[in-house]
Design goal:
Helices cover 36% and strands 22% of the residues. It has 467 residues and is of the alpha/beta class. Bound molecules: flavin-adenine dinucleotide.
Length: 467
């Protein structure tokens, strides 16, 4: 039995960052990761001049904690920000890529919405509150109208969650949007007042956060955390069971015992603090012997399948300028892809000279059945759609398909009740903390923010225990 003060289960960004903040305060922390390498969803594959992101292609610098991490891990020289043109985003409408307007003047001229659709926005300040938990589709239709749902929010939800707006809870999945209505009584009023308040506090708007990655890809961040944590990282360790027993002389605290396999051999670990930072469906199974209620709640969280089809084309085969981040496809367009990121136009070093790298997303909550196709069929779906949408000719020079059988947790209606269940579980199990992207946001930035919060709660717990 190995004794530690904190055990983190899961070496994705949530677990690694939590371990890092705790390590910095001098705690004896260990990270147990099932795979042979850390990073979880954040994986980069270099191959012969191509740099393939198999999970997130980039992250938004939504918190100053990133700057702390770059400095702690000496990553400043590897950090890269997205090309300025990446602010341009396109939405597919009637077979054409139309720019998403980023300024009021451009919005008025945009062909994404009809005159009536645009005039509908004038009603927004006068729309009242719903008085019940709504989906993002209900919320947007009520406040902004159906056209705005179809050609702004629907593709956006596909791009962020690979999700379905008719199922995602606005309060759980888009808390900032929901807060505009709660705090200011409307989105337009909230935007205007928010700008004024931020100006007064000399703060930068979150939507101006910069998009970043690293010269050698997004996996640089988890790899650097792993390197800095050194022997505290144990890869190839799958935690299989968790049990707990009260600690004598420490009223109300427990010792958690974890057992599992390390490269085929049985291993056991114990600690008074456990931070579980693994996907909800794995967490559900591990927690079943402790309490079945939490298992039931965590098992309800749906993770749709998503495939990333990375295609390399000779630049001269692409019939449109790659002057943006890429494009998203509204469900109304009835295509077989969710959208495409123009990877090599955003960051350097993603494709060999003279070639372009395009990452196309397929499946999600909208079309999970598309993932029944084999890799060859998925490639042909993506190539066919890009031929038509981006006026590409000929076959790709490079192909790599990555499948995520369970990709991104969906914060469906009822998600906040699951979060309350998690909070109750933690209150009843002092020293046990549940983390991961199914709680507090799915973006890499959210995971980093939440890891710092969890580490703060762990420190508070140790302080309370020692009193
Ligand atoms: C296809 C895709 C594209 C995305 N694109 C973006 C993007 O562009 N920008 C962005 O900000 N976010 C994006 N995200 C979301 C973001 O990448 C994730 O939310 C985030 O990386 C999740 O980190 P995590 O540590 O919570 O979980 P994970 O990365 O899932 O890590 C959990 C870890 O736990 C380990 N584990 C599981 N069970 C056990 C066990 N029993 N014992 C030990 N270890 C275990 C797993 O092996 C894994 O390494 C994307 C996600 C996907 C899937």
């Amino acid at each position: 039995m190995e004794d530690h003060s904190v055990i983190v289960i899961g070496g994705g960004i949530s677990g690694l960052a939590t371990a890092w903040w705790l390590h910095k305060t001098g705690h004896n922390v260990i990270v147990l990761e099932r795979d042979i390498s850390v990073g979880g969803t954040m994986k980069t594959v270099p191959d012969n001049g191509w740099l393939i992101e198999t999970g997130p292609n980039s992250a938004l610098e939504t918190t100053p904690l990133f700057k702390t991490l770059y400095a702690d891990l000496h990553l400043e020289s590897e950090l890269i920000y997205a090309n300025e043109k990446s602010d341009n985003r396109y939405i597919l409408k009637n077979g054409s890529l139309l720019p998403l307007p980023m300024a009021p003047g451009k919005f008025l001229k945009s062909k994404l919405w009809s005159v009536n659709g645009k005039l509908r926005l004038l009603k927004e300040p006068f729309v009242g509150r719903a008085g019940k938990e709504e989906t993002i589709a209900e919320f947007v239709t009520r406040r902004l109208g159906k056209e705005f749902l179809d050609y702004a929010i629907n593709p956006f939800v596909a791009g962020v969650y690979a999700g379905n707006p008719e199922q995602l809870s606005v309060r759980a999945a888009f808390p900032k949007l929901y807060a505009l209505e709660e705090k200011y009584g409307g989105l337009i009023k909230g935007q205007i007042k928010g700008v004024r308040e931020r100006k007064r506090r000399a703060e930068k708007a979150k939507d101006r956060s910069r998009l970043f990655s690293f010269v050698n890809g997004i996996q640089t961040l988890p790899d650097a955390l792993s390197k800095a944590l050194g022997a505290k990282i144990r890869t190839g360790v799958t935690v299989e069971t968790i049990s707990m027993k009260p600690i004598d002389n420490h009223n109300g605290s427990f010792l958690y015992e974890l057992s599992g396999k390390e490269k085929g051999n049985a291993v056991t670990f114990s600690a008074p603090v456990v931070v579980m930072a693994i996907p909800a469906y794995h967490a559900a199974e591990l927690l079943r012997p402790i309490t079945p209620t939490i298992t039931e709640s965590l098992s309800k969280i749906f993770y749709p399948p998503v495939a990333e089809v990375f295609l390399g084309f000779e630049e001269n085969r692409i019939g449109i300028p790659l002057d943006g981040f890429g494009f998203l496809v509204p469900a109304k367009e009835q295509r077989k892809i969710l959208g495409t990121i123009w990877s090599s136009a955003i960051f350097p070093n993603r494709a060999p000279k003279g070639f372009a790298a395009l990452t196309t997303f397929v499946g999600g909550s909208r079309q999970p059945e598309v993932l029944n196709a084999d890799d060859k069929e998925l490639t042909s779906i993506a190539v066919g759609e890009l031929h038509s949408i981006m006026k590409i000719t000929g076959e790709p020079s490079y192909v790599r398909v990555t499948r995520w059988r369970r990709a991104i947790p969906q914060y469906h209606l009822g998600h906040l009740a699951i979060v309350e269940q998690i909070e109750r579980f933690e209150a009843e199990h002092p020293g046990f903390f549940i983390s991961g992207n199914f709680r507090g946001g799915i973006a890499v930035g959210d995971c980093v923010i939440n890891s710092e919060k969890i580490s703060g709660r762990v420190l508070e717990y140790f302080t309370r225990r020692s009193q």
